[in-house]
Amino acid sequence: MRIVSSVITGDIVGSSQIRGDYKGVLHQIGEDIRQYVDDRFMIDIYRGDSFQTISKKPEQAFQILIMIKAGLRQYSSKQAGTDLQWDARMSLGIGVLDAYPQSADLSEFSGEPFTRSGRALDKVKEKGSLLHITTGDATLDAAFEATCPLIEVITNRWNTTQAQAVYHSLLRNFTQQQLGALFKITQRAAGKRLDSSNLEAIRGYDRHFQQLIKRKWKI
């Protein structure tokens, strides 16, 4: 049975300067996504600062991409008197697999989403960008290529507190009141963090992305 899946290939930006367990953070993000978004989600960390993920819910792939971004950006390292915010270059590939992996050792697997995601990460590095989405559909891919720089503009501006708010809002659909209780701040302060993060614009695009993927693969 052929299965439509999404694969994200990424590497941590400036990993040699990071003081902290970013591998542990990536694994925790993976656990969170498994619990709240996709119980078949897997993440494989290799070569120190590189990682690959797979999801059996390709329509949720953009949300997962943004959650990884926010999950990392809610951390920072003190380096030479400045805050080095954690981040990753990531390429998202969607396509068909003959079988879904049964273990998180994703290096053993190949197929459309793996090939598309891996090749696209090279383009991300060449362009000096951080995000790329590819599906093998020329029309969709052109639209995603035009949109990703705009998504980067929004997400690259997130500070640690904004990223925290985005992460928990996307993960568990927390309200402003619930976020306020989690961070021990007022509901109004939590709302300001969400407003300044432009989360509603991200949510709007996520809804559009889901429609496109469901229509393309008749999910």
Descriptive notes:
The chain is an alpha+beta fold. It has 8 helices and 7 strands. It has helices at 22-36, 61-73, 112-127, 138-155, 160-172, 176-183, 187-197, 199-217, and strands spanning 3-12, 42-46, 50-55, 76-79, 82-85, 88-97, 131-134. It has a 5-stranded mixed β-sheet with strand order 2-3-1-6-7.
Question: How would you sum up this structure in a few lines?
Answer:
This protein is of the alpha+beta class and 219 residues long.
SSE topology sketch:
Elements: E1 3-12, H1 22-36, E2 42-46, E3 50-55, H2 61-73, E4 76-79, E5 82-85, E6 88-97, H3 112-127, E7 131-134, H4 138-155, H5 160-172, H6 176-183, H7 187-197, H8 199-217
Parallel strand pairs: 6-7
Antiparallel strand pairs: 1-3, 1-6, 2-3, 4-5
Helix pairs in contact: 1-2, 2-5, 5-7, 6-7
**Strand residue content:** 15-25%
Beta strands, count: 7
Mean pLDDT: 94
The structure class reads alpha+beta
Largest sheet: 5 strands, mixed
Task: Give the SSE string.
Answer: EHEEHEEEHEHHHHH
**Broad shape:** globular
Distance between the termini: 15 Å
Low-confidence stretches: none
Strand order in space, largest sheet: 2-3-1-6-7
Please, how many helices? Answer: 8
Percent range for helical residues? 40-55%
Q: How much is the radius of gyration in Å?
A: 17 Å
Task: Please give a handful of descriptors for the protein shown.
alpha+beta, 52% helix, 219 residues, 20% strand
